[in-house]
Amino acid sequence: MAADMSDSSAISIRDLSFSYDAQVVLEDVNLEVLSLDSICVVGPNGGGKSTLIKLIVGLLNPDSGEVRVFGEKPESARLRIGYVPQYARYDPQFPISVFEVVCMGRLSDSWIGRYTRDDREKVMEALSIIGLADIADRPFSSISGGQRQRVLIARALASEGDILILDEPTANIDHESEVQFFDLLTELNKRMTILMVTHEVGFASTFFKRIACVNKQVVIHPTSALTGDLIRDMYGGDLQIIRHDHFCGVEGHQHD
Ligand SMILES: Nc1ncnc2c1ncn2[C@@H]1O[C@H](COP(=O)(O)OP(=O)(O)OP(=O)(O)O)[C@@H](O)[C@H]1O
């Protein structure tokens, strides 16, 4: 489905709260993400970033409040979201090729057990975009950590979603691969809304328009509006410094 390129809402979260058993992880969360926005999601360990992402993709349900993705419940909008989880659950010994991993992005509710020619074309297209078409037949277990990460992004691309959500995708890749990775994200952001969890705000903020700070609550800022000191004060010392050398949107930050 093609993305609506106007200022339409891609993700809308209203008065959301979520607990694991008795532990309140997110409370009174409100978040509005517009189509073609790019947001980095930061915050201390255990602050609720991955939980927030799982609520957006419909893997968890809120205790109260609501999540809407293009105006629909997350489970109805699942095919519009490409999701790269924090840990890819692949047994390294499992004999699966790069091509087959990306094919999983074509699974849908109507999948009947084999891939169509269209599926295969979309898979090769996604692998070409991330520059790994030439290793399509290699076993997934035999490629590097950075290549695996890109293959998982190709899987998300093959699903042809309008939103790309990545949970700490650069944790295992070197700086050079990270530069290439952000070039790729810049290209994808022309047609996809991007949300990415990261602990490396310094370099990342050159790409993202806005930053969402998650620590039980969610506060959103233009990336240019924060200083490293402020981040450290609010969220502890586990974040790197944000750069201030590019223009961001008009939404100001909303702390007391
Ligand atoms: N399945 C679960 N059952 C119970 N508690 C959980 C579960 N998953 C996460 N938690 C707890 O919820 C809190 C938020 O976890 P979450 O993974 O969302 O944080 P995070 O901000 O992504 O952390 P990190 O930066 O360490 O990845 C933590 O205290 C965590 O221990």
TrEMBL record:
Gene3D superfamilies for this protein: P-loop containing nucleotide triphosphate hydrolases
Domain called ABC transporter: residue spans: 11-241
InterPro entries attached to this UniProt entry: AAA+_ATPase, ABC_transporter-like_ATP-bd, ABC_transporter-like_CS, Metal_Ion_Import_ABC, P-loop_NTPase
Family to which this protein belongs: Belongs to the ABC transporter superfamily.
Database matches in Pfam families: ABC_tran
Protein name: ATPase component of Mn/Zn ABC-type transporter
GO molecular function: ATP binding; ATP hydrolysis activity
SMART domains per record: AAA
Taxonomic path: Bacteria, Pseudomonadati, Thermodesulfobacteriota, Desulfobulbia, Desulfobulbales
PROSITE patterns attached to this UniProt entry: ABC_TRANSPORTER_1 (PS00211), ABC_TRANSPORTER_2 (PS50893)
Keywords tagged on the record: ATP-binding, Nucleotide-binding, Transport
Protein source organism: Desulfocapsa sulfexigens (strain DSM 10523 / SB164P1)
